[in-house]
Amino acid sequence: MASSEEDGGxxxxxxxxxxxxxxxxxxxxxxxxxxxxxxxTAGWLVLGIAMVRFYAQKxxxxxxxxxxxxxxxxxxxxxxxxxxxxxxxxxxxxxLVTGVQVSSRIFMVWFxxxxxxQIQNEESVILFLVVWTVTEITRYSFYTFNLLxxxxxxxxxxxxxxxxILYPAGVAGELLTIYAALPYVKKTGMFSLRLPNKYNxxxxxxxxxxxxxxxYVPLFPQLYFHMLRQRRRVLHGEVIVxxxx
Length: 245
Hints:
By secondary structure, this protein is an all-alpha fold. The protein has helices spanning 2-58, 64-78, 81-88, 95-114, 123-147, 153-159, 163-188, 205-236. Helix 2 packs antiparallel against helix 4 (95-114), helix 5 (123-147) packs across helix 7 and helix 7 (163-188) runs antiparallel to helix 8. It starts with a helix and ends in a 9-residue tail after the last helix.
């Protein structure tokens, strides 16, 4: 009996120590996520203000991408941390889904808009830039206030209503931008690998972009209707039952 009590006391101390460690880690994770989301909200807000100022001063969208590209590249690339957040478990979201969403944005920034300067003045580029900016300011401010347990209703409303128009508009902007890039990619053969070569492998960036465009067909409806279900659940309190395939 004496031995059993000692063991029990030891286990209790270990459990208490483990629980305390988890609480400290949880507090640190929350503090980091608040900092991250505040920084991202501020970054996209700075980007949005810069875009408005540019258009107000110049009266045209031409040259806008070039003027904001450094800020855009930094904060969009910085979003790779969201994949890390999912991987280490401080955010309960699928690593795969988050990875696809973040990498698709980075792909648009670095491998389309940055790499193909001839398309930087396309209206479609400005379209997805405006959509991304409004979306990210709304999304990151939503996460920030939610973590602080003080979520204004307007922020919640905006988070689950703006996407209805912004999501399709953003997809349209991205697809039109990729489409505008196709002639330049085909003409220059950029990022393509022709045979023969020492690796004995060929890759055609032109056809890769066409495949990327077609990939929007099955992916967009899934993500869009998922957001619509989330909207009904959050704003209207509906219980959504996900059906197994």
